[in-house]
Amino acid sequence: MRCDKWLANTRNTLEKHTRRRIVIKEGKGQLEEALQRAWAMVTYGSVAGIEAAILGIPVFSGPICPTLPISAGRLEDIENPLLHERLPWLHSLAYANWR
């Protein structure tokens, strides 16, 4: 799927599979506030997914997202997210950083 159609396709899929409120956050700011009330996060490829995962929020990850190894699964399963052990994934992120 082309990323320019990703948002519309993602919203359509979510609307078919959940009655939960869908909040679309674009740009910077208010991430912490949005995550306080979040059931899950859906992201194409944002580092914001890492922040959500650290807080224990399931992340439905796009193909270039750093959270792909712990993705909560298919959007169709938004009400039953897969929950992965995050510590090995977080270790791998930390080991990939250096000065």
List keywords for this structure.
mainly alpha; globular; 2 strands; single chain; 34% helix; 99 residues; two-stranded parallel ribbon
Overview of this protein structure:
- The chain has helices at residues 6-17, 31-36, 48-54, 87-95, and strands spanning 41-43, 59-61.
- The chain is mostly helical.
- The longest helix has 12 residues, at 6-17.
- It is globular.
How do you describe this structure in short?
With 99 residues, the protein is mainly alpha-helical. It is 34% helix and 6% strand. The protein has four helices and two strands; from the N terminus they run ααβαβα.
Which secondary-structure class do the elements indicate? mainly alpha
Uncertain segments are none
**What's the quaternary structure here?**
single chain
Give average pLDDT, whole number: 90
Number of helices: 4
Q: How many distinct beta strands?
A: 2
Spatial gap, N to C terminus: 36 Å
Q: Roughly what fraction of the amino acids lie in strands?
A: 5-15%
Spatial strand arrangement across the major sheet: 1-2
